[in-house]
## 1
Amino acid sequence: YFIQSNLSAMSCSIQALGECYPDYHFTPQTFHSLYCSDKFNYDTKTRDWVRRLISSTGIERIPSVVNPEQFEGEPGGFDPDIPVTAQNLYLRAAEPWCPTTRERAVVWEEWAPKLTLGAARDVIGKWGGDPQGITHVITNTSSGTHMPGLDLQVVDGLGLQNIRHRICVDNTGCFGAFSALTVAQAFCGSESDAVVLVICTEVCSVHINKTSSQRSEILGNVLFGDGATSAIVAAGDGGGGVWQMSPIGMVTAPPHTRDHVTVKLTDQGYLLHLSKELAPTLVKVLKPAWRGMLEETLQISEPEECDWAVHPGGKAVLNVFHSPELGINLSRDDLAPSWDSLRCHGNLAAPSILQVLGAVLKRSGERGRDKVFVIGFGPGMVVKYFGLTRAKSSTDGA
């Protein structure tokens, strides 16, 4: 059994999308230097498995605030007087390669605001509107926390003077952008002149955990990266050429799936668990539901009638949408933006879907396509989705 939310009509549109990434990258060699060396005390069997995993993820690089060059060095002895930075987070740790939760938080607290503000400035520039016309700010993150939150840092950092409401929608994992956009839709539905700035940010590189002992825990360490993505969402249809949103829907899987995706706070940062049952469960959730999702959000019934923006949760997850068992039968080209995102960014958690969506909308515009189905998933296990329809402009044909 699955619980599906009821969709109610409201009018809002995505006006622009933005992004911001750090300068460093983790590569397969980065993870080889950690997991397949004496730095992490794994047995031969585990190291062999990690080698196979790293070579099979489909990931070439992952953006990171942490400088990977520190993994090439050797600890020189702990000195508490040396400040913690992204340059030395793992190298300076008292327990080699295993910083404390507080030390990890120091780096997160420096870089999460930088990435958030970078993505905010990027989307405002692409939007081209007056920043003082923004009425609401929503931020989302699941990789760290501090108070006041990122929402207030955005308002202060950009000097926004006309904010009616700001809110942090945190700890929602990979469907975090959907949760933030749901709140944005609610603001747009209640205030006809709402202009909402949404930013999703993750700094996952601070949570590499040498104490991870299960394969389901190690998997998360080699998949997740750092970055921020953003959107301007406005009430009303937005005029010709913009992408009008359907209400966001949700399907929640049965209680026995609650442990398929979990994140727990430990003395060595966050510990992520990804079950091997994630992809099979996704098939079970979507198989009876996907056609109804298309009908609700886009008033279509066949997958080829729209373009697809799918959260790049990993190779196994994306392959679900190619599987005959599910019946959607998308080609590799159909999901090229999702596969490209996974290859070049890994899984950014909440920011990923907006990064994918930006590439899909660009390609859809170039191909003259006017419908996009957007879908993601995360802890719960929960699937969230919505449709986008490009509004016709005065220059479009009848």
## 2
Amino acid sequence: SRILQMWIYMNFNFSVMLFFKKLFKKSGRQRNPDEAVAKVFLKDITDVEVLNTLLKVIKEGANGTTCVIVNHPGSHITVCQLWRWPLHRTMPMLKRVPICSSDCNGNCINPYHYCLTMPAVEHEQGAPKPTERRSYSECSDSGICMDASSEHRYSGSHSSGGTGWCNIAYWEHNQRIGALHHVTDPIVTIANEIDNGLSLSKLSADQYSSVTARVRKHVGTGVLFSLEEDGIWLYNRSEISLFVQSPTLRMPGREGEQDRPSVLKILPGYTINCYELSRHLIVPPNTRTVRLSFEKGWGPGYKRQYVTDTPCWLELLLCIR
């Protein structure tokens, strides 16, 4: 048992240092100041099974779902600094991804069970003015979501009679692919290949563009949406940036700009409350929709002006009362 523990520790320690060497070689730094922190942290873990499991989940990355439990408060912050965000000298607030078991009581040190929290969007005081509501209803001037036919589609999806909180539509450019995905569980994952959730690989289109095929390949572990007490949280678990637009993510517009919801860029490993329930009642019912594009942004400041110009995107049609 002692020999096995030493072997695992040496193997784990070697993997840690090799990781650091490659990372800091790319960043141009000659010496890694976190090596000492890593060595101290590893020495504090004396359980062979925990060491072995931690090594396994780090190799698996976001594909793994195993929790790693230690009784050292704050250890998850150290692990995240070492393996997920080593270039962050000051860690932003971490938020546990809902795939992590609630039985862990905050003691899980799987670094892929956490995301960095993006700052909340500051809102203007009070409810949107009537002119603001009208301008938002016209925000998607592609005609896909705001014409008479799409109002009928929204009505149909919202009155499905089930107990779900949203329906998800997957699009490639201006073509809807597959049927609506009805969501009843509090969390839902959309990924390229997944057993539980919306698997994009199971949705087939008549013809793919080269850009669409490349983006779908990069979706990987994708995005997780979670219905929580304060809103719908988006967790970017992929290795690409996501772009999200929501009626509660409105930024104060510049003078002369059309009043429209902001498209926010969500970096890999970040999370944001993309639909705040505190503002739900002041959002017009026919605009209670969250749109997300994989890898490609749209709108002012982007080459693509409309969401239908992006190769792969989603609509969350909210059924929340």
